């Protein structure tokens, strides 16, 4: 690891700019900073899932690996031209997703966020992941972004959805199903 911070504040961002990993400076509200900032937020919400009670070891192992991947992805987005997330990472995610999804019953209804604290935190992570994906897509329209970044986030949101189901079932709360008939008026 290169530079270590001995002093947390530098005052260099007081003008509304921040330094990228390649040394260039951009506005703090640039699309690039927004994209890697949301990836950081996603990593934090996954930390909330991991801090919840009742998370099984296999889920914990999968999400810990995801946190490391997201740190790499944030680095890739912070350093233009850097490649830190690869096809192998996406393929690993797909295998993990399949392993968690295969034992689940087919989905017949929409699921509402809920099903216990861990599942609820995972739903939050899933929605932040979708936002990160949208921001990476937006960044890719104006700057070079490797397609692996977008594909990783797309696959991760699918994995998080499946883990929401796994966590809700494991908690004893079960999945919270959307009641599409609640608005139908009884027949007279």
UniProtKB/TrEMBL annotation:
Pathway entry: Cofactor biosynthesis; adenosylcobalamin biosynthesis; adenosylcobalamin from cob(II)yrinate a,c-diamide: step 2/7
The keyword Nucleotide-binding is annotated on this UniProt entry: yes
Keywords for this protein: ATP-binding, Cobalamin biosynthesis, Nucleotide-binding, Transferase
Signal peptide: none
InterPro entries assigned: CblAdoTrfase-like, CblAdoTrfase-like_sf, PduO-typ
EC supergroup of this enzyme: transferase
BP-aspect Gene Ontology terms: cobalamin biosynthetic process
Disordered: annotated segments: 1-23
Molecular function as annotated in GO: ATP binding; corrinoid adenosyltransferase activity
Family of this protein: Belongs to the Cob(I)alamin adenosyltransferase family.
PANTHER family: CORRINOID ADENOSYLTRANSFERASE, CORRINOID ADENOSYLTRANSFERASE MMAB
Subunit structure of this chain's protein: Homotrimer.
Identification of the protein by name: Corrinoid adenosyltransferase
Species of provenance: Dyella telluris
């Amino acid at each position: 690891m290169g530079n270590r911070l001995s002093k947390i504040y530098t005052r260099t961002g007081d003008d509304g700019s921040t330094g990228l990993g390649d040394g260039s400076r951009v506005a703090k509200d640039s699309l690039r900073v927004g994209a890697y900032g949301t990836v950081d937020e996603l990593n934090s919400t996954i930390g909330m899932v991991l801090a919840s009670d009742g998370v099984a070891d296999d889920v914990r192992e999968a999400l810990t690996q995801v946190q490391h991947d997201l740190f790499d992805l944030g680095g890739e987005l912070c350093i233009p031209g850097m490649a830190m997330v690869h096809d192998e990472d996406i393929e690993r995610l797909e295998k993990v997703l399949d392993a968690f999804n295969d034992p689940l019953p087919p989905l017949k209804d929409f699921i509402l966020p809920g099903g216990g604290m861990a599942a609820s935190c995972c739903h939050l992570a899933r929605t932040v992941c979708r936002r990160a994906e949208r921001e990476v897509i937006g960044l890719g329209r104006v700057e070079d972004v490797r397609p692996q970044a977008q594909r990783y986030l797309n696959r991760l949101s699918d994995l998080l959805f499946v883990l929401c189901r796994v966590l809700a079932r494991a908690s004893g709360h079960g999945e919270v199903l959307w009641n599409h008939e609640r608005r139908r008026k009884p027949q007279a």
